Amino acid sequence: MKLKTALMSTLAGALAVMAMPASAQQGVSYERLLSADAESQNWLMIHGNYSNWRNSRLSQINKSNVSQLVPKYSVMVGGWATVKNGWVGNMTGTGSGKPKEETIPLAADGFLYTEDALSKVMKIDVRSGKRGQIVWRFDPDISIYRNRKGVALYGDKVHVSTGDMRQIALNANTGAVVWETNTWADPQKGSSATKHERQYSTAAPRVVRSKAGKNIVTMSETGTLGWGNHWIAGLDADTGKLLWRWWSIPAPGEPGHESWKNDAWMTGGGGFWSYPAWDPQTNTIIGGTGDCYPTYDPEFRPGDNLYCASTYALDIDTGELKWYFTSAPNERWDNDNSNIHQLWTAADGSRVMSTFDRAGFWYNLDMDLSYSDSKPGQPARARFKKAVQYVDQITWTKGIDPKTGYPLEYDPSKSVQAYGDIPGGKTPRQNLGAANAVLHCPSWNNQNLSMEPGTLDISRRTIFATVNDQCIMTAMTAFPPMDAQGNVAAARIGKGAGSTTPNTNVDRGFSIIAMKMDTGERTKLAKFPWNANETGLLGTDGGLLFIGWHNGDIQAVDKDTGVVLWTYSTGIKMSGAIMTFAVDGKQYIGVQAGSDAGEVSNAPTGDGVLGGAAVLYVFGLPG
Asked: 211-239, pLDDT tens digit by residue?
């Protein structure tokens, strides 16, 4: 950290401590996090509580008065407008250009905590209700970056996962560094050809207290230069000591390695984009992994390809895989399983993990730890409860087997699966060429349920989610080579092996759906013209859903009717999810806006807004 930044941070922090009430200095205990829903005035975690519900009990802003919402203040939090002209850092190989603002601010006792896409962290005093005053700002001076999701509060610390793979704990009162750990990893054991030259992280850290009494913070790696294998790690939240690391693709000798029939495991994929749920009853974190790689070419990587595009459950003390669920083995559509994973109790008393899979189904898994097809020496595949179609049209499969949860076309005797999107049961290589384009539904291109969170309203027994109704006309035109024995060509390993997929979108707009948790009954609540959504939804007990759009609009929608009750145009693209908090009995809505790759220029984007800035907007009722 630069000396100037450290001095400014320490001075500002010292002044802030003198002005802070005792409650702000005491920090956010584990007990407070466990009971986060009871502190409706605060937003202590990225998705509100450990079960990832994203529904606030605040109701002061409601259907009757939301039309009166006005901007109360805004805070410039950094972004590309604050860096040297032309600086791009060490971004080679990540394929994402300049990052967009995806951070979800946290609120605790009258202060907001946020970071920009370059991992610069800020504490903001919002107790006046009239302005956001920066208390301190920490710059880790990163060299590698991608989109960031936010920070974590625990005790008297703010936990930060930087874009260049450092885990840092800051003093919440002063912004001073308490500890820092470089989590950069050597290649996975046995995977010497997979070069980890460009590791980077985007997921927010998660902090819990384990059954063994440890305070543990998680950090995950999302990408590398060669799109190799990825990991999630647990660190001691008090000292920064690395406790364990779990790779999503099993190496030779590890359970599940047999699901990769050749050396393709070395570039298997399985990035960690999502923010895991925490189940203290079983000492388990539950999240999802990214797509298998090469993305569109299952012949390149024959086998079921565990554990990419899967749900994982890890013991937080050891990092051991307790169970997993792969919905479409040998998947080939870039179907990251990184949407929000939510935990809840069904009407019959059983505990459920549910998630909206990117391929068009809402999956329910049994959380009571009884498994369907576990084998000696192998991790257990979670017990499947049901899968409900939530999009209008699905073409890649005829349906899901109600007993196993696998697609009906799945054949465990085959190394390469022939799913239903290509006529005649062909695989992509058997259907090569632009002239053989097929209709694939739902589209993975601009598919919103990759990382965009829904909201679970326990009082209504309903989960609300944004849905991309789009399909795509697609054909595969080129694939990386294999050798004469059908193995991955050694020259391709670790060098971005991929395939070419020309696409023509079939735009059908976006929707908000309401899914009844106990019955799976789906209602299309609202329909919008095509306008890419990445914020997902925030729900409140005021009967409202809040959503943001790429054209800079933020809107409030009636939970019961789907009617848009309020719209405000910020003029800045929105990708980060919305949150809410209260100070002195007054409720506010907060969102961090900012654009991404190719949009820092004098030319407006296709949505008619300029890029570059990162701004935190706060809205409230007049007065």
From this structure: 999 999 999 987 664 456 789 999 999 99
